[in-house]
Amino acid sequence: xxxxxxxxxxxxxxxxxxxxxxxxxxxxxxxxxxxxxxxxxxxxxxxxxxxxxxxxxxxxxxxxxxxxxxxxxxxxxxxxxxxxxxxxxxxxxxxxxxxxxxxxxxxxxxxxxxxxxxxxxxxxxxxxxxxxxxxxxxxxxxxxxxxxxxxxxxxxxxxxxxxxxxxxxxxxxxxxxxxxxxxxxxxxxxxxxxxxxxxxxxxxxxxxxx
Length: 210
Fold this sequence. Notes:
Strand order of the largest sheet: 1-2-4-3
Number of domains: 1
Helix content: 40-55%
Shape: globular
Number of strands: 4
Number of helices: 12
Distance between the termini: 27 Å
Radius of gyration: 16 Å
């Protein structure tokens, strides 16, 4: 994984990745041994997301919703949340400790806002991509296919077999870290992701950069 962030990764880092005030101090010794600061941990999650197409990262960074908040332990997802006096919407909390001990789990949590954004633009209460939603007809077609795959039960954990949001997040995280494993565990999802969320040409056609 390249140490230097791309322009799109830096844009995402600046606009979408936040660190809660207590996350680093209360994150534990393992966190403090791995990262010299909370901002270093934020850079690490931006680096993990670098496996997505650059157009995807830039598009995400340009959306008004869809944020990540590194925390000391909270792993919730909030429709809205006040962070440093700013009201953020569609916020995924990612425990900083996961970046040390469970990197793929951290990546899956970080990918939740993308599912929400592609499904309904991050609106509260509307269908995410993994629910069968989609911000364009092309994305709705992808969402419908994901929604058909979810009930087949190929999720790699109990939660990903029960929750379509967790199913897509875990599958996409697996595709970014060990695509061959995903091809064995859930080959239909692997092929679908390869032709859509992981395809630079699909992004160029369906979410062009401004």
